[in-house]
Amino acid sequence: MPADRFLPPTLRLAGTGNRAARLDALRGFAVVWMSVFHFCFDLTFFGFSHQKMLSDPLWTTQRIAIVSLFLFCAGMGQALALQSGQGWPRFWRRWSQVAGCALLVTVGSYFIFPESFIGFGVLHGLAVMLVVARLSAGLGIWLWPVGAVALCLPALAGLLLPGSGLEAVFNGVPLRVLGLVTVKPVTEDYVPIFPWLGVLWWGMASGRWLALRRPAVLDGPLPGGRCANALAWLGRHSLPWYMLHQPALMGLVAAVAWLVHR
Questions:
Q1: Is the peptide bond before 174 cis (omega within 30 degrees of 0)?
Q2: What is the pLDDT of residues 7-22, one digit of tens each?
Q3: Can you count the helices (H) and strands (E) in the chain?
Q4: How far from 158 is each of 120, 174, 202, 217, CA to CA, in Å?
Q5: Of 14, 31, 38, whose CA–CA distance to 235 is shortest?
Q6: Domain ranges within the chain, ordered by starting residue
Q7: For 222, which DSSP code?
Q8: Residue 21 near residue 101, CB atoms below 8 Å
Q9: Which pTM does this prediction carry?
């Protein structure tokens, strides 16, 4: 019996054109939050502010929340795409966009931050996790406990690795992409597979449960009028926005800094 029989029409077509607007709006909210966060970072980078973006819990907690929301939405999106019968060709087309943008982020960040360029950030981690999520979708309800294990693995590594002789192995390239490190690498963005795969798995599990048991949560009308519609639009175009917003913001703040200090 096809899984999409249980879905309302708009969710059945989520992988072929129609979208779950409420999920898009949630992703759009994450986009706005991320943009504000990066604008504050740029103000600090160019000396207009003196926030401790990399150490102050006010900012580090926000970063964790933003990344978590993005990956949770990505997991939910994968669940809806699979429920609607999305095939591998369409998946790989979208995946190639994410992977290509990840490469551009590495190259671009190298020119701006040569000592701390982004080798495995949000898009790099997402590219790997999307493939793992696709292959593990058949776990169904087991995504919840498996996700919990993924969330706990870095903490376990922090307890077991020191003094074991394996610290250098997991802290070095290439295994540090796993996230089982005792020393965070020097980089502007670091989103390893663990614990973040657990967040995406929980997003998949939530999306699957909602689609089958509470479809109105995702398929209902958007509250909030134009504001909600704008957020949904941002959510539908989150990847190009992600790629363009920071160069635009950084360029704007850099121009103002040049005018002020000329």
A1: yes
A2: 444 444 333 345 789 9
A3: 11, 0
A4: 20, 18, 23, 38
A5: 31
A6: 12-261
A7: P
A8: no
A9: 0.91
Q: For residue 158, give both structure tokens.
A: 């922090």
Amino acid letter at 137?
Answer: A
What six digits make up the tokens of 91? Answer: 């998946």
Distance CA(234)–CA(257), nearest Å, equals 28
Please check whether residue 161 is in contact with residue 182, taking contact to mean a CB–CB distance below 8 angstroms: yes
pLDDT digits (tens, 9 = 90+) for 149-159: 999 999 999 99
AA identity, residue 152? C
What's residue 156's pLDDT? 95
Regions of the chain with pLDDT less than 50: 1-17
Write b or e for each residue in 61-95: b if 16 or more Cβ atoms lie within 10 A of its Cβ, otherwise e.
ebbeebbbbbbbbbbbbbbbbbbbebeeeebeeeb
> What single DSSP character describes residue 164?
T
* DSSP characters over 129-156: HHHHHHHTGGGGGGHHHHHHHHHHHHHH
At residue 72, what are phi and psi to the nearest 5 degrees? -65, -45
Q: Which amino acid is at 162?
A: P
Beta-carbon neighbour count of residue 54 at 10 Å?
A: 12
What integer pLDDT is reported at residue 224 of this predicted model? 78
What DSSP element (H or E) covers 205? helix 193-213
Contact assessment for residue 192 and residue 177, using Cβ atoms and an 8 Å cutoff: yes
Q: Which residues lie below 8 Å from residue 11, measured CB to CB, with a gap of 6+?
A: 4, 20, 80, 83, 84, 211, 215, 218, 219
What's the confidence (pLDDT) of residue 1? 33
